[in-house]
Amino acid sequence: MRYELYYWPGIQGRGEFVRLALEEAGADYVDVVRRKGGMRRMLKMLASKRLEHPPFAPPFLKAGPLIVGQTANILLFLATRHRLAPANEAGRLWVHQLQLTIADLVAEAHDTHHPIAASLYYEDQKAEARRAAKAFIAERIPKFLGYFERVLERSGSTFLAGRKLSYVDLSLFQIVEGLRYAFPRAMNRTERKFPRVVALHDRVAARPRIAAYLASKRRIAFNEDGIFRRYPELDA
Amino acid sequence: MRYELYYWPGIQGRGEFVRLALEEAGADYVDVVRRKGGMRRMLKMLASKRLEHPPFAPPFLKAGPLIVGQTANILLFLATRHRLAPANEAGRLWVHQLQLTIADLVAEAHDTHHPIAASLYYEDQKAEARRAAKAFIAERIPKFLGYFERVLERSGSTFLAGRKLSYVDLSLFQIVEGLRYAFPRAMNRTERKFPRVVALHDRVAARPRIAAYLASKRRIAFNEDGIFRRYPELDA
Prior knowledge:
homodimer; 4 strands; globular; 55% helix; alpha+beta; 6% strand
């Protein structure tokens, strides 16, 4: 069965966490909206009154008759099929808990450039964004990365949960990538305090399937339409 | 076994979604931090380097040896034990997907009064809060409630997912409660457009265990330290 991933084209965004899991699993999938007619199909599904489980927003994944939405929920679904999380309940919940903490971080990273409203232009909330980014860099990046550093220390492994890679390792890789893109100066100062997080990032990047993906055209470059945006004025 | 719920005292906050599930299940639980010495215990656990699964933030639930964090993840865990979600995978994922959409709404509701940083006082981001709340009321409340209205219409039942109550029904009840508290004028104009959502709220409120809980001292009143805050200047 070929998975169908539905997500906004042209950005990594939240879809990237799903792409990384599909790539690491070697799963057969198509990134629907990057193909001709895909946007129309996605918008039709979002507006549908007939779908049994209508998604609120992209990304969502079609797996045969099943449509699964919400990034962390998609990963929960994929994990059981592709061994991307421990099989026992405690381990599964733990990985999911970490993923939901990543989701919180992603939302906060987005809000640094859109603190007032997602519907307004960045230019219309630039002053507010500067204040929001300042607090995010000073308080939130260290708090989140410090937490994952502590989890890695406690796990006694090179992965966050147990001795094997799980989807949240892929997501933490993506967080480091995104923060480095958006806040290169701040991360240059900060990331050395979190050597285990950086080492995990490097290990994930070197995994054969991930390395092949990152070098391929399937990996969209970071840009200023995504969640992680490089606005030098926010990288103080 | 008695569950131990750890959450900030004095507010409903995110802990309330867990409390509602525990109450509806008739589960035996203690709200640890509302008891003597509870705050010290919670802070110790949050700072611990020895816990196998250290939580990032409250709420978290201790269930015997297991510690489960992140609101939606706690509900996922409780659902399998207390039949608060369908037993089949598709139904479980669907309820969780809806819960994660609720979580997004909760974060956005919080950010109406703290758009710049959670670490700053409301007074230091009041002008920004006014702009954020205006967009939230005009765009986001209708979008979210409209979505849940559509889900209820499509479910063909009085509940969001299937013919039986699930934890996300309890959470949507709490959303209506919170929005009515924080934005009484806006909700008075808006909620009539979402009759199924309002009817679900009323049905949940009338359930014997929920009604008993709401009338008890265990239900903390809404106040201006929580997620839903009544600042008249934001209720335009």
